[in-house]
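Readers of this paper often ask what the protein records in our data store actually look like. Such a record has a labelled line for the sequence and another for the backbone structure tokens. The tokens are whole numbers drawn from a learned vocabulary of local backbone shapes. We quote a single record here, exactly as it is kept in our systems:
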Amino acid sequence: MDSHNHHEEPFYRKYIWSTDHKIIGLQYGITSLIFLLIGFSLMMIMRWQLAYPESAVPLVGSIFGEDGMLLPEIYNSLGAMHGTIMIFLGIVPLAVGAFGNYFVPLQIGAPDMAFPKLNAASYWSYFWVVL
């Protein structure tokens, strides 16, 4: 009789501190999508100001300038931040980190990455650097 002593790992061990390439790919993907949402929000604030130039930006207008409207230098800053966040914190990590970690080992038939702890460290360095 062959008995397997299988136990379920807790959430933090399975999804937070994992060395599995698929979980690390999901971590990259979720973090990248969050940053894409932040970049999209900045773009929507800019578009609101263009569409309704005489009205305040709803919800967040009070932190950007007088009367809730964007000052020109704030508008330019939002444009630069939007582009930087979307490319360097959203699209590149999604393409390289998420798809590369999740699909490449599966496509080449590898059971795991060559250095799984280094792979996990690369995600956590990305996560803490962008915060």
In short: The CA atoms of residues 18 and 24 lie 7 Å apart. Helices lie at 11-16, 21-51, 72-108, 116-130. The chain is about 70% helix and 0% strand.
